[in-house]
């Protein structure tokens, strides 16, 4: 049985997250920078009564920072007790991917990107036209740094 995924873009790459982990998507109007956080942490935003840290995926993936556009989105993701926003270039699509359609990324993917991509899938854009999407490892993106918000403060 296929599962639903939220598709988003960072530079030229197309990535997916399980839709069941996504709480909401919002336009990005800026974030309050927090001193002492890594450069890829855009800051904190207030969304629907919660204070949420935002990770700029361009910077996290080692890409150059760009000014947010009208297409920029914050994808608010919940994993266990953690709620984090992911700043992406655009997010406008939901797709179904069958579990057997996902495979391990190439073993040569290393360096800074090691672990950011859990799986890859070739999916049909239109009949006869395939595209590659990458399932991101949310825990790797945020897990090691311990970015979280104490829910009592939100």
Blueprint of the fold:
Layout: E1 3-10, E2 13-18, E3 22-27, E4 41-47, E5 50-56, H1 57-60, E6 73-79, E7 82-88, E8 90-97, E9 102-103, E10 117-126, E11 129-136, H2 138-142
Parallel strand pairs: 2-11, 5-7
Antiparallel strand pairs: 1-2, 1-8, 3-6, 4-5, 6-7, 9-10, 10-11
Please compute the radius of gyration using only Cα atoms: 15 Å
**Helical amount:** under 10%
Count of individual helical segments? 2
- How much of the residues is beta strand, in percent? over 45%
Overall structural class, as computed from helix and strand content, comes to mainly beta
Can you give the mean pLDDT? Answer: 86
Shape: globular
- Residue stretches low in confidence (pLDDT < 50, at least 5 long) are 144-154
Q: Could you give the distance between the termini?
A: 36 Å
Along the chain, the helix and strand elements come as EEEEEHEEEEEEH
**In total, how many beta strands?**
11
- The neighbouring-strand order within the major sheet is 8-1-2-11-10-9
The main β sheet shows up as:
6 strands, mixed
Description:
The protein has a six-stranded mixed β-sheet with strand order 8-1-2-11-10-9. A five-stranded mixed β-sheet has the order 3-6-7-5-4. The C terminus is likely disordered. By secondary structure, the protein is mainly beta. Helix content is 6%, strand content 49%. The chain contains two helices and eleven strands. β6 and β7 form a beta hairpin.
